[in-house]
Amino acid sequence: MVDLSLVEGVPFEPISVTVVKKYLAAIRAWHIAQGWSPPLSDEDHDHINWSLRGLENLQGNQKRPLCPPITISMLRTLRLALNLNDPFEACIWAMALCAFWGMMHFGEVSVTSCGAFTTSKHLTHKDAHFGNDLDGKPYARLDLPSSKTAKPGEIQSVFLVPQEGLCPLEALQNLARVVPAGPDDPLFSWHDQHGMIRPMVKAKAIAHINSILSTHSWGTAFGHSF
Questions:
Q1: Which residue of 52, 96, 115, 144 pairs with 156 in a disulfide if CB–CB is 3.0 to 4.6 A?
Q2: Spatial contact of 139 and 130, defined as CB atoms under 8 Å apart
Q3: 17 and 49: one domain?
C-alpha cells in the first residue's frame, strides 16, 4: 500500500494511459543507459498493464483524460490573486464562483467572442434575481435562457446560496458595483479603459485563471472543471 502522507500536497494532474506508458519506458531506458537492471520485473509489468487496461476502459475513446476539477483550495488561491476592484478580475471572480456553486459549465457564464453575445442565449442582468426563501435566508437565481440540459426555448434556473469566504452572492453584488450596466447588458461583463461594456470571453477568462493556478502547479483548468 502507498503511504498517502507521502503524496500530500502533490499537485493533481491527470494523464492519459499513453503518457503513463511513455513515462515508464523513459524510466526503463534511463536505468539501462546507466548500466542498471530494469526497474520493473515481468510480473510488475503484468500488474501495471492490467491496471492500465482498466483505466483505458474508463476513459473510453477520449484522447485526453477527464478535466481536473476546480477545488475549494484553488478558489481560495484565485481570490487572493484577484483584485475585486478591477472590472476584468471582478467579473472572473463572479463567473468562477457562480459556475462552481451552480454546477455550471463555464460556457454558460461566458461567450465564445464579444460578437457572439445575444440575449436569447446568454445571461443578462435582468436574468439575475435576488430574494429570500421561506426561512428568510438570501439566495440568487440565475435564469439561463439557453442550456445544454434544457429543451429548446426552456429557461433553466440555477439557485445560489451564501458561502462563507467564497460567496457567489457577494461576488455578483461586487460585480454590479464595479461594472454598472443595463438590464440587457451581459451579466458577466467588464468595461475597458473607454468605459465600453464587454461580455467576458471564455478563452480569456480561462487563460487568466490558469495563469494563476499554474504558479501553484495545479495543472490546467477547462470549462468542465467547474
A1: 144
A2: yes
A3: yes
Taking each helix axis from N to C terminus, what angle separates 87-101 and 72-81, rounded to the nearest 10 degrees? 170
Domain carrying residue 133: 72-225
pLDDT level of residue 1 (50, 70, 90 thresholds): very low
Q: Are residues 46 and 134 in the same domain?
A: no
93 and 44 fall within a common domain: no
Task: State the total domains in the chain.
Answer: 2
Q: Are β-strands 156-160 and 138-144 bridged in parallel, bridged antiparallel, or unpaired?
A: antiparallel
Which string of b and e fits 98-120 if b means at least 16 CB within 10 Å?
Answer: bbbbbebbbbbbbbeeeeebeee
SS3 63: coil
Decide: helix, strand or coil at residue 224. helix
Cα angle for residues 139, 76, 113 (degrees, 5° grid): 75
Domain for residue 125, yes or no? Answer: yes
Residue 147 shares a structural domain with residue 185: yes
